[in-house]
Design a protein that fits this description.
The complex is a heterodimer of chains A (about 325) and B (about 325). Chain A is α/β, with parallel strands linked by helices and about 325 residues long. Chain A is built from twelve helices and twelve strands. Helices cover about 35% and strands about 25% of the residues of chain A. The two termini of chain A are about 35 Å apart. Helices cover about 30% and strands about 20% of the residues of chain B. Chain B folds into two domains: about 230 residues, 3-Layer(aba) Sandwich (Rossmann fold), CATH 3.40.50.300; about 70 residues, no CATH class. The two termini of chain B are about 25 Å apart. Chain B is globular and about 65 Å long. Chain B is built from nine helices and twelve strands. Classes of the chains: A alpha/beta (about 325), B alpha/beta (about 325). Chains A and B meet through helix 7, helix 8, helix 9, helix 10 and helix 11 of A and helix 5, helix 6, helix 7, helix 8 and helix 9 of B. Chain B: Keywords: ATP-binding, Nucleotide-binding, Transport. Chain B: It comes from Mesorhizobium metallidurans STM 2683.
Chain lengths: ~325, ~325
């Protein structure tokens, strides 16, 4: 069997705060196959971005590091590389060649003093060893591929001359420049207007189908997950609490947090009926706990309507619900 | 249902931002000819994408920025013509809730100081009375009274937004502009804050202008929804009617673009092409025509008037044959 594009096993990343190591994520197991899109979904502080930064080796060195676990990726030549043991230079090579990255804010991930074309051409020269001229031509070709009209002219422009949506298309072109096997997209549409978001989601789906990359899509938006992902991992307070095919998790969530989250998403047309009936919108009571003061046992127990004493005794393992779905809830069978 | 007399009346509100000594470039036409009413005790939602002018409307009605032309009347009184003193007295009745609960609360003031600052400026009550009002506001937003002596950083995003709401309530206003009050919050907290705002609005009989970029968020709280695009009103309708039968092609596209949390509904979306044009150089005629799937030649010629297509439901589109 072909090795997965990305394999994470037992990942634990910690931040050193006030002399204490605080786990931002722990017990993370995740696999992405080629041509597969996996969404990592969660609210602020759930650890979804820390997970993606860990893969890219971009945790701020002074305060954060990977304390445990393995992260390996399958490279273009078919070899599997373990990332956690690499030094900075080796890691840089993998990042440029095999992992493409797209972030939330296109204005901050583009350099304001270089043209769009120069920025896309740079990794092509450095990582693929192409000439200036060949790289510049490739940059224009990539801009065409991400749907930028008049790409030759746009390549000569600076980031501030482009709209937000166009900038995000340019960062996608940059991420794809070296034909990566894995694309990590961390909230790539969050800063965009909803009509532009729809365009970018469409573009990412097309590019992925064309290139057969594995995609890790980090988002807080369940609508976006339903739209783009094959599988989903739901994170809460640093752990994956539920994982499975999008179709099965959305049809029947097996963790109370996933259920609560899905109920909280406003659905068009539904609110009118609730308002008419004088019923409040469904919510999850309370707040996300601080990672420095996680409760004993299941981290969701203090907000969970189904919590019992056993939930507070020990952190639940991931229970296998089906071949593809798993839940970190001891009462999953009752859901 | 007979409509109550409007509390806020906006007529032909226009705002142009002219270049200043420090900026070059053309005049930005942020708002063009905006007219709407808010009946007392009702909530009107103002929805649009970036550059639509929704925040400019919110700030103009409180005269936090000066409109270029137009009328803004509260209870019949045109506030565009008020002098500084009268305006300050009028503002007692009008409050603003900001989007970002991190940027809008001073890190160096206690919550008590934040909540009583407006009362100090308006010279309302003595110290004990101000404190009592602040504590009452904290209770109204379901925060513990001991929050009074704490600082903003000790609270989560959702709690901070409650503090922002409490600050707006201490002056016991009649009218509140809530500018994207839940956009910075996590989805499980968003619903809590909307429920709270709805509850307060009903209980206190507040009149509210609720600004959001997200049509899904305003549905629950708004009686009427206004859809803005590039500084102009595209559609105004009672909430139930707007969501059930959106009539303007832009509203339809906006609703369709919201990703549905239902994987079965995937790829049935209508995707608008292109970008929002620059408000410095809006298209002639209908400003939406450059992205509109139904645009015809005539759309470039005239700015479409808002016209009523069913009771209370107005659209600014010259075509009557847009499929639902």
């Amino acid at each position: 069997m072909e090795a997965p594009i990305l394999q994470i096993a037992g990942l634990r990343a910690v931040f050193r705060i006030a002399g204490r190591d605080i786990a931002a994520v722990q017990d993370i197991d995740l696999e992405i196959g080629s041509g597969e899109t996996v969404a990592l979904v969660g609210e602020s502080g759930s650890g979804k971005s820390v997970t993606s930064l860990s893969i890219m080796g971009l945790l701020a060195k002074k305060i954060g590091h990977i304390a445990k676990g393995r992260i390996s990726i399958r490279r273009r030549d078919g070899s599997v590389t373990e990332l956690t043991g690499l030094d900075a230079e080796q890691l840089r090579r993998v990042r440029g060649n095999d992992i493409g990255m797209v972030f939330q804010e296109p204005m901050t991930s583009l350099n304001p003093v270089y043209t769009i074309g120069e920025q896309i051409a740079e990794p092509i020269r450095i990582h693929l060893g192409k000439s200036h001229r060949a790289a510049a031509a490739e940059a224009v070709r990539l801009l065409t591929q991400v749907g930028i009209p008049d790409p030759a002219r746009r390549a000569k422009q600076y980031p501030h001359e482009l709209s937000g949506g166009m900038r995000q298309r340019a960062t996608i072109a940059m991420a794809l420049a070296c034909n990566p096997t894995l694309l990590i997209a961390d909230e790539p549409t969050t800063a965009l207007d909803v009509t532009i978001q729809a365009q970018i989601l469409d573009l990412l789906a097309d590019l992925q189908a064309e290139r057969g990359m594995g995609v890790l899509f980090v988002t807080h938006n369940l609508g976006v997950v339903a739209e783009i992902a094959d599988r989903v991992a739901v994170m809460y307070a640093g752990r994956i609490v539920e994982t499975g095919l999008v179709s099965e998790v959305f049809a029947r969530p097996r963790h109370p947090y996933t259920m609560g989250l899905m109920r909280s998403v406003p659905r068009l047309g539904q609110a009118t009926a609730l308002k008419a009936a004088g019923t409040p919108l469904p919510t999850i009571a309370g707040n996300v706990p601080s990672l420095a003061m996680l409760p004993k046992g299941c981290s969701f127990a203090p907000r969970c309507p189904m919590a019992i004493d056993a939930c507070r005794a020990a952190v639940p393992p991931l229970f296998q619900v089906s071949q593809t779905q798993a839940s970190r809830c001891i009462r999953w069978e009752e859901l | 249902m007979s409509a109550p007399a409007p509390y806020l009346t906006v007529r032909n509100l226009t705002k142009h931002f002219a270049p200043t000594a420090f900026s070059r470039g053309p005049v930005v036409k942020a708002l063009q000819d905006i007219s709407f009413d808010i009946p007392r005790g009702q909530v009107v939602g103002l929805v649009g994408e970036s550059g639509s002018g929704k925040t400019t409307v919110g700030r103009s009605v409180l005269r936090l920025i000066e409109p270029t032309s137009g009328e803004i009347r509260f209870d019949g009184k045109d506030i565009v013509k008020l002098g500084a003193g009268d305006l300050r007295r009028q503002r007692r009745n009008m409050q603003y809730i900001f989007q970002d609960p991190f940027a809008s609360l001073s890190p160096r003031m206690t919550i008590g100081q934040i909540l009583t600052e407006g009362l100090d400026i308006q010279r309302i009550g003595n110290r004990a009375e101000r404190r009592a009002r602040a504590e009452k506001a904290l209770a109204a937003v379901e925060l513990p009274v001991d929050a009074y002596h704490r600082y903003a950083h000790e609270f989560s995003g959702g709690q901070r937004q409650r503090i922002g709401i409490a600050r707006a309530l201490t002056l016991e206003p009649e009218f509140i502009v809530a500018d994207e009050p839940v956009s910075a919050l996590d989805v499980s907290i968003q619903a809590q804050v909307i429920n709270l705002l709805r509850d307060l609005q009903l209980r206190l009989g507040l009149t509210m202008l609720f600004i959001s970029h997200d049509l899904a968020v305003v549905e629950y709280i708004c009686d009427t929804v206004i859809v803005l695009y590039l500084g102009r009103i595209m559609e105004i309708a009672p909430a139930a009617s707007l969501y059930a039968r959106p009539q303007h092609p832009y509203t339809q596209a906006l609703l369709s673009a919201i990703p549905s949390p239902d994987p079965a509904k995937r790829s049935k979306r209508q995707i608008l092409k292109g970008d929002i044009p620059s408000p410095a150089n809006p298209p002639s005629g209908c400003v939406f025509r450059t992205r509109c799937p139904y645009a015809i030649e005539a759309c470039a010629g005239v700015v479409p008037e808002l016209r009523e297509t069913e009771a209370g439901h107005l659209k600014a589109c010259i075509r009557d044959d847009i499929p639902a």
